[in-house]
Amino acid sequence: MEPILYTENLTKRYGTVPNQTDALNGITFQVMPGEFLGIMGSSGSGKSTLLNCIATVIQPSGGRILMDGVELNSLRGKALAEYRGRKVGYLFQNFELLDNLTGRENILLPTSLHGVPEQESRKRLSQLADYLEIADVLDKFPTQMSGGQRQRVAAARAIILHPKLILADEPTGALDSKNVKHIMEKLTGLNEDEQATILMVTHDSNAASYCKRILFIQDGVIFHELRRGEETQRDFYERILKVMAQLGGGSANVL
Q: What pTM, to 2 d.p., does this model score?
């Protein structure tokens, strides 16, 4: 089985000598189809820079990123738009919903932009609304929703085009513990039931305990890796906490 995503010796530098900062300093890893991979690290470790490089928001200084064997740096025009619009779905900490659109309109925006037939779009919307339990907020505006509802609407928008890879950037950062559990259970369900491939950046050990594998980044390099075996989620959570303690971070015990 070939990886969906592969990064090789990825580097990203900001500034110029002598004030140069190495945000990424030779990151190599792969994401396999159907994997739920977490990227963890303390603030300033490089994890968000890594995700932004994969999302093509910023250009790396060196190394390669390949999606389905195609180097992202080579994508131009329609091919780049296809990657950003269809191959990758985005889930953000602050939801990034358009306040002047209803939940329904926010979710259907990608299908409209990418020419999905109306009947198919509405079918996908109905299925996602049931699964994510957001049918009752489809006709509300984001300001009329709770944080958890907004994140689930954002999740529906991110996956309605069936992307090959979901990029989640601190998706639980603006949520309370109850809604963290809810959204993480939904993401886990998408991963297990729909074989959705998810790459999630988080500083939250609780959210990370839902992943199957975690890469820990410190000072722009991969510091450690954990894989979840047959252990319980709580036991995996405790292992995560031990690594995060070495990195100087962690989270409250809310499992």
A: 0.90
DSSP 211: S
What are the phi and psi torsion angles at 117 (to 5°)? -55, 145
Tokens at 200, concatenated:
């999630």
DSSP state of 178: H
What pLDDT digit, counting tens, does each position of 208-240 carry? Answer: 999 999 999 998 999 999 999 999 999 999 999
Instruction: pLDDT band for 92, please (50, 70, 90 cuts).
Output: confident
Strands 213-218, 198-202: pairing kind:
unpaired
* Whole-number pLDDT of residue 255: 42
Phi, psi for 133 (deg, rounded to 5): 60, 55
Contact 183, 155 (CB under 8 A): yes
- The bridge status of strand 36-40 relative to strand 62-67 is unpaired
Cα distances from 69 to residues 7, 74, 162, 244, in angstroms, run 11, 11, 19, 33
- Residue 91 to residue 158: CA distance in whole angstroms: 6
Is residue 249 very low, low, confident or very high in pLDDT (cuts 50, 70, 90)? Answer: low
- The residues, ordered by sequence, that sit 6+ positions from 8 with a Cβ below 8 Å of its Cβ are 28, 63, 64, 65, 66
d(CA 72, CA 207): 29
Residue 252 reports pLDDT greater than 70: no
What secondary structure, in 3-state letters, does 192-238 show?
A: HHCCCCEEEEECCHHHHCCCCEEEEEECCEEEEEEECCCCCHHHHHH
Structure tokens, 12: 């990203």
C-alpha span between 120 and 26 (Å, rounded): 43
Distance CA 81, CA 28 (A): 25
Mean pLDDT of the chain: 92
